[in-house]
Amino acid sequence: RLSCIRNNVWLACCGVISAGLAVLSSFGLMLFCGVPFVVTVANAPFLILGVGVDDMFIMIASWEQSSRKKEKSDVKSRLAETYAEAALSVTITTLTDVLAFFIGTWTAFPSVRSFCLYTGTAFVFCYLYTITFFGAIIVLNHKNEQENRHWLTCMPVGVDEDQAEKSCLYNACCIGSCSRQSSQPESEHPMSIFFKKYYGPFFTNKWIKLLVVLLYGAYLGGSIYGCTQMKEGINLRNLASDDSYVIPYYDDNDKYFSAYGPRVMVVITESVDYWNETVHLGIENCTQNLE
Question: Are 55 and 93 in contact (CB under 8 A)?
Fold first, then answer.
């Protein structure tokens, strides 16, 4: 929003901080429990940030939709209404994400198992911080708006008798605008008006719905074709722990032997005396015959 009171900048920042706290808490708990940290786990914060910001928008939207006609003393009712509307969807998305990642811990790959443990635990903490920490931040931000305070300086915004003698910077931070007009709260966000009055009615047109179905059919066909052309592959180096001997092995193999073809391995299934010179010669002859 352009309003110097209700632009929710700090609210958005605290939503990102909430996701960051979830990452710190989950990583700290897993490291304390001795779960190994592998390089693939470094991708988990990006997943948590996406889900955390999504939950943040759901909470803010539910808060904005709650009745604005209630008095400042009725914050409890507004917050209860917000949780009644938002907590269900946030809970369901969290449960599905946590279930998906905890099922992934059944894999035989230790690195994938560690990644799923870290990420699944981070989703749990993200949910807890969203319904506790971020809910409190919403209330504090609402209190700031009710007292007509500037979003950055937290100073009361209003018409000052001596504002004509003040600088434009002072008027912008303490009055609300350089034009010396007090900022008034907006009744409804322009984006909400756009989707309600224009976007929704546009897509309810029967021809538009038919076009959407055709476009989705083309998209689905292209997706199926793309899946048939997909080549499966994975870098085995990333499946080992950071201190594993496998990592320098794959590095040296790619550096020195990547130009050669596939390796052929010979297994001697019986017990032999490798110290015997005759056995040495027999193995060498076998190798030469294979070559």
Answer: yes
